[in-house]
């Protein structure tokens, strides 16, 4: 009904001025801006929508403002009607904010904060006004009016806290915090004028004893920090240092765990696990605020506060601590958590406060939460420790001794800390590498799976930096017990749970292979490969025994893959055995994990690698073709929908093959069936396999032109270009059908760009032929879904763009994307099938 121009005046006059009618008018006025600007079923063009928006909203702003003023002044009840405030909020998108601020509506909004009925709506309205003034230079007159009115609300903070009125306190906190967010650049520019607003936000932070509202201030403190750390605002930064210093003290207090009401010190939240989890998450957000404070104040003053808090507790309560009880432990745990949060910002050269704090940490009385917090701190400062080796021994012993406690949380924390202290201080722990293995062997079975991996990462890091002459012996020392455990687990595995334990334990072997990678001169034997040769038969036997259990197959293949990645061409002696097992495994199981390893081998032993002889390269390519043949047979036996994961792995492998062996592959007899299999796979609807297939097709098509997706910088030979073009000419119609059908009907949204990229590649090398294919496919669409005139218009536009040259080709891509998107929005796939658009089943008889 675009012809109805006087919508607002007519609705208002028609409904009249009775109380019931005014409620309807307010409802209408509230939803009108929302429907006009956010309506989903608007069929107008962009220009029509813009014109209609002006007619319905822009042309009526003055009348609406006057109507709202008149209504607000009609009675005391009207002035506190939440509907009135909601209408003001809704129209703030259209009414200039200055018209509201300079009108009698501003006092109405502020006075509405005094009434419980209208408090929430008034808060929302006021915060919406602040958001409209974010462009501070443009809205400075309005801000000058708003600032004193907002500051006048500050006494209400203390009153709400005193009355324990949590809803009011949260509302006032939001008002001050969102005013600060909106005017943050002015707070940095004019600290003397806006400091009272910052102090009001600080007061909200301080008085929030229930910790329900404090999170509303976090964004403000972060955004203000972003300005104050700039050189431009260094003077303002100095003026706000004391505010951030007070903020550190407030956060430290809020970080404290609650005190147990009863005798049970372990139940701090009266059994409310949700409240406990919420508090833990909340602490990490407060830790982020502490980082903001560090960036303003500097790390040393913040750490000094931690040090003072620890010393204060030690002086007051340490002498009263026993094995069974630690008085007021919350006051000690909070600064420890704060110190941990600051860790990322502490330089490893800090020599003022940390040398005083670290010796205190290892003397903290035993208490589960204190020990947990201390271990987490030590794990966070391992880079600093690596630069201060004199503090390593005491920390290392403290962490090691923590593994003997009964607390699962402490043990998990200790495993994580060991990972970091071994990784960062690995060069300092060489003298203890043998003793470390004894500890590792004795401790490993007591740990949960994740902690086993973390501890393994740590000790493997120490092994990795030892001289290569020791690598073989150290791998035997550490990994032989792991292999013994692995064989024992495999022999006992008779159900899914026990088989999963085998797979999980395999990961520990993989971590050693992944991390222990000594540098060896070319043509020298790698001692790590010597150990790999010893364990390979065992891994092969386990693989053969559990060929039908995917997790074990994947873990064995992951181990082999990392052997190739870590030791690269030094793995040549193991390649024949590995290739045989990969070929047998894939043929027997059709699991994609075997293709992962093949892909790694292709990359590391490609034609352009140094120290790889031609015979090895040829053997590897022959092995790759055998894997490909097996996959093509699998795709003949089963439809793509039954092999989505394997198809993804296969085409990711082919991307590597095309990248590193392009000429061999394009000249291969398998090149055509692999391409046709890719076209058949376009019938899939899962994002990941489709993405792999589309990327492969794009790369293949690029070899039909002058700029192929190649790892080499050589010119693409005409012979190769001709072979690719012949392939596309023979299969182009089916390819375009698969792509167009996918973009219009079946592809997930994330694949549209890749699909149109394939079409773009086709238009670049074969523009006329591709135009003909597209035209034919569009005319195969189900009857009634698209008009012939629309197809003709699209095809004429495509031909027009192609006549421009290279720049026009990219515009063709946009045309097709727009067309397919429009078709997709209007129509769904017919239930009785796609008729002539149905894909043909892939067949391979090689």
Automatic annotation (TrEMBL):
Sequence ranges assigned to domain Exportin-1/Importin-beta-like in this UniProt record: 2-126
UniProt xrefs under SUPFAM superfamilies: ARM repeat
Keywords recorded for this protein, A-Z: tRNA processing
Single GO cellular component term: cytoplasm
One BP term from GO: tRNA processing
Role of this protein: tRNA nucleus export receptor which facilitates tRNA translocation across the nuclear pore complex. Involved in pre-tRNA splicing, probably by affecting the interaction of pre-tRNA with splicing endonuclease.
Protein name: Exportin-1/Importin-beta-like domain-containing protein
Organism expressing this protein natively: Sclerotinia nivalis
């Amino acid at each position: 009904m675009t012809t109805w121009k006087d919508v607002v005046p007519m609705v208002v006059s028609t409904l009249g001025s009775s109380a019931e009618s005014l409620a309807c008018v307010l409802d209408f006025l509230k939803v009108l801006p929302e429907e006009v600007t956010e309506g989903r079923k608007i069929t107008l063009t962009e220009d029509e929508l813009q014109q209609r928006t002006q007619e319905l909203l822009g042309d009526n702003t003055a009348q609406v403002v006057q109507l709202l003023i008149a209504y607000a002044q009609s009675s005391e009840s009207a002035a506190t009607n939440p509907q009135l405030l909601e209408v003001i909020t809704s129209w703030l998108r259209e009414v200039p904010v200055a018209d509201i601020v300079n009108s009698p509506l501003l006092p109405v909004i502020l006075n509405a904060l005094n009434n419980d009925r209208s408090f929430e709506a008034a808060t929302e309205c006021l915060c919406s006004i602040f958001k409209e003034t974010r462009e501070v230079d443009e809205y400075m007159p309005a801000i000058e009016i708003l600032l004193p009115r907002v500051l006048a609300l500050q006494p209400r903070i203390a009153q709400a806290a005193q009355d324990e009125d949590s809803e009011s306190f949260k509302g006032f906190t939001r008002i001050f915090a969102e005013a600060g967010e909106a005017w943050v650049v002015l707070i940095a520019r004019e600290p003397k004028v806006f400091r009272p607003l910052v102090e009001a936000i600080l007061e909200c932070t301080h008085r929030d004893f229930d910790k329900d509202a404090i999170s509303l201030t976090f964004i403000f403190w972060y955004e203000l920090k972003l300005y104050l750390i700039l050189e431009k605002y260094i003077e303002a930064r100095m003026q706000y240092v004391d505010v951030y210093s007070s903020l550190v003290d407030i956060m430290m207090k809020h970080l404290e765990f609650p005190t147990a009401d009863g005798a049970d010190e372990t139940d701090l939240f009266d059994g409310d696990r949700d409240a406990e989890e919420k508090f833990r998450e909340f602490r990490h957000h407060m830790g982020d605020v502490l980082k903001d404070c560090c960036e303003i104040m500097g790390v040393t003053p913040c750490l000094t506060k931690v040090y003072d808090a620890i010393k204060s507790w030690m002086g007051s309560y340490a002498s009263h601590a026993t094995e069974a009880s630690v008085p007021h432990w919350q006051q000690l745990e909070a600064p420890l958590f704060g110190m941990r949060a600051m860790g990322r910002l502490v330089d490893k050269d800090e020599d003022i406060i940390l040398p005083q704090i670290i010796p205190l940490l290892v003397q903290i009385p035993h208490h589960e939460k204190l020990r947990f917090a201390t271990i987490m701190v030590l794990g966070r400062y391992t880079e600093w420790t690596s630069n201060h080796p004199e503090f390593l021994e005491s920390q290392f012993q403290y962490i090691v001794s923590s593994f003997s406690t009964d607390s699962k949380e402490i043990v998990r924390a200790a495993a994580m800390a060991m990972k970091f202290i071994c990784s960062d201080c690995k060069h300092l722990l060489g003298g203890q590498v043998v003793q470390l293995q004894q500890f590792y062997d004795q401790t490993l079975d007591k740990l949960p799976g994740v902690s086993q991996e973390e501890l393994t990462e740590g000790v493997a890091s120490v092994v990795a930096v030892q001289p290569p002459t020791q690598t073989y012996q150290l791998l035997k020392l550490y990994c032989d017990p792991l292999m013994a455990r692995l064989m024992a687990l495999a022999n006992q595995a008779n159900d899914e749970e026990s088989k999963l334990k085998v797979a999980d334990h395999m990961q520990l072997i993989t971590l050693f292979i992944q991390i222990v990678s000594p540098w060896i001169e070319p043509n020298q034997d790698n001692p790590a490969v010597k150990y790999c040769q010893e364990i390979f038969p065992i891994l092969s036997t386990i693989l053969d025994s559990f060929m039908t259990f995917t997790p074990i197959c994947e873990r064995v293949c992951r181990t082999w893959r990392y052997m190739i990645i870590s030791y690269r061409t030094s793995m040549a002696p193991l390649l024949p055995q590995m290739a045989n097992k990969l070929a047998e495994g894939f043929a027997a199981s059709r699991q994609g994990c075997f293709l992962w390893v093949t892909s790694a081998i292709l990359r590391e032993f490609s034609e352009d690698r140094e120290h790889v002889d031609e015979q090895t390269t040829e053997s590897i390519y022959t092995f790759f073709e055998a894997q490909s043949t097996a996959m093509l047979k699998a795709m003949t036996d089963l439809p793509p929908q039954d092999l989505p994961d394997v198809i993804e792995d296969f085409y990711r492998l082919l991307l590597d093959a095309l990248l590193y062996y392009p000429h061999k592959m394009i000249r291969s007899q398998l090149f055509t069936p692999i391409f046709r299999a890719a076209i058949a796979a376009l019938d899939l609807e899962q994002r990941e396999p489709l993405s792999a297939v589309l990327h492969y097709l794009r790369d293949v098509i690029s070899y039909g032109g002058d700029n192929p997706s190649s790892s080499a910088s050589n010119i693409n030979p005409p012979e190769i270009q001709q072979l690719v073009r012949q392939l596309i000419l023979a299969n182009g119609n089916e390819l375009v059908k698969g792509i167009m059908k996918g973009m219009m009907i079946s592809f997930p949204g994330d694949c549209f760009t890749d699909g149109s990229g394939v079409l773009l590649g086709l238009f670049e090398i074969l523009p006329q032929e591709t135009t003909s294919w597209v035209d034919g496919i569009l005319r195969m669409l189900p009857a009634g879904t698209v008009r012939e005139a629309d197809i003709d218009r699209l095809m004429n536009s495509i031909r027009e763009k192609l006549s421009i040259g290279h720049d026009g080709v990219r515009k063709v891509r946009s045309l097709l994307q727009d067309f397919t998107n429009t078709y997709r929005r209007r129509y769904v796939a017919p239930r009785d099938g796609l008729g002539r658009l149905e894909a043909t089943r892939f067949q391979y008889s090689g």
